[in-house]
Amino acid sequence: MQPSGYSPRLLTIAGLFVTCLIISNITAVKLIAVHGFVLTAANVLFPVSYIIGDVLTEVWGYAKARRVIWLGFGCNLVAVLAIYVAGILPGADFWQDQEAWDKILGATPRILMASFCAYLAGEFLNSFVLAKMKIATNGRYLWTRTIGSTVVGQIADTSIFMTLAFGGLLPLDVMLNAAGTEWASKVGYEILATPFTYLVVGWLKRVEGIDYYDRNTRFNPVLLTD
Fold this sequence. Notes:
By secondary structure, this protein is mostly helical. The chain has eight helices and two strands, in the order H-E-E-H-H-H-H-H-H-H. It has a single domain (8-89, 96-208), classed as Arp2/3 complex 21 kDa subunit ARPC3 (Orthogonal Bundle). It is globular and about 60 Å long.
């Protein structure tokens, strides 16, 4: 039976998930260079959303994770609309920074569409794969499903975003190189965070008294009921 209610710890985890998502979308506009590899600044925080997604599914199950994923989508949409409205409002006569605002926060509709589609596909695949692997492994080998689900989820996330955002604008080899670097960095982030994930999952299972298995779960991503 799917655990009912929302504990303070679940709400805290959900809040962290939404925060990571919104901040990542804002910081993604900055490109950074790390040892010769060009990445978006979102790589600092966005992979954490996948780690949190793993924790949500592992402890509370796919249905609870599904609600949090949609919550993140809705909150990010509100943030995007708020930023858009703020950008088109007339600035004060003495305010001279509209160009800077538009350059940093005025994301194009194509980029936003790519980001939203990639997020939904990646997060739902991540949660689905982890839930199925948990059943297949009978709850053992947590590291295989946290890393395995991230590998699959990030393939979808990265490939969808790069295709929708830059298809036809960048040479194919440049897109593939950038996508490969993004994917590898996010999976590497997940691998390095595995010991921390073990600690958090173990603690939450103990204090919550929950270790949910999605044996009878309906995996339709658009359902909002448990």
